[in-house]
Every structure is written in C-alpha cells, then in structure tokens.
C-alpha cells in the first residue's frame, strides 16, 4: 500500500493543486499568469503527465509503453476537460478550449520525452 501511495501520491497531489487553484475566483498571481496563460497551462499539465507516468511505471522502474503513453495522455486530457468545466462553474472564471489544447500539448510533450528516453532501456 505504501508503494502505491509513493507512486500515485504525486499525481493525486498535483491534481488536487490544479483543482484548488481552479476553484478560486481570483487565484494568487492571476495578473502575472494572464500574460503567460498558455505557457502556464502547458507546464502545469506537463508536470501532471509526468506524475501520472511516475505512477504508471512504478517510479520509472519500467519504461513507458505506447499503451501507457496513451493512457497517461487520455487521463490528463480528461482531467483538463473536467478542470475547464469546473472553472465554468466558479464565479469570475471561464472555460477555454485553448487552455485544454495547451494542457494536452504539455501532457503529450512531456510523456513523449519520457517515452523517448526509455527506448533502448531493458525492463527490470
């Protein structure tokens, strides 16, 4: 149980952070982030996808497979969609398809980088 918490805990914690920031009508640093909105979304979901990949590979003990890459990307995309829907319900916040696109691009980029680095590595 502790190993699963160790492997999946970062993803759950990061998802909680995303939810907490999305639930605020006026999140801290909103003025600064507005200028870099898509970059922030890209990085936010690149990190989220990395935490999901960490869990999926038991702490990178195993290389990502194409199936696990797809699963991580789908989970990240579904969370991005739910996050934008959630924001549409928060006063002074709005949903944006461009935010979802930046989220998806960040997720795909980071997971594909991890996948590429794992190629040629043998499974333990």
Report on this model:
The chain starts with a helix and ends in a 6-residue tail after the last helix. It is built from five helices and no strands. It has one domain. 74% of the residues lie in helices and 0% in strands. The protein has 124 residues and is mainly alpha-helical.
Short descriptors:
5 helices, mainly alpha, single chain, 124 residues, globular
What can be said about this structure in brief?
This protein is mainly alpha-helical and 124 residues long. The chain has helices spanning 2-22, 30-35, 37-56, 66-88, 97-118.
Number of helices: 5
Fraction of residues in helix? over 70%
Determine the N-to-C terminus distance: 21 Å
Which structural class is indicated by helix and strand composition?
A: mainly alpha
- Low-confidence runs: none
**What is the overall silhouette?**
globular
How many E-type strands? 0
Tally of separate domains:
1
Q: What is the mean pLDDT? A: 88
Biggest beta sheet summary = none
Return the string of H and E elements.
HHHHH
Strand content: under 5%
Radius of gyration: 15 Å
């Amino acid at each position: 149980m502790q190993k699963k918490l160790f492997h999946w805990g970062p993803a759950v914690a990061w998802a909680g952070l995303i939810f907490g920031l999305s639930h605020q009508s006026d999140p801290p640093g909103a003025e600064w982030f507005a200028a870099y909105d898509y970059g922030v979304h890209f990085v936010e979901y690149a990190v989220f996808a990395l935490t999901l990949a960490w869990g999926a590979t038991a702490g990178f003990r195993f290389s990502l497979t194409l199936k696990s890459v797809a699963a991580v990307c789908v989970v990240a995309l579904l969370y991005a969609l739910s996050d934008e829907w959630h924001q549409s319900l928060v006063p002074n916040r709005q949903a944006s398809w461009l935010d979802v696109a930046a989220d998806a691009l960040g997720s795909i980029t980071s997971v594909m980088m991890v996948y590429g680095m794992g190629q040629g590595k043998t499974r333990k």
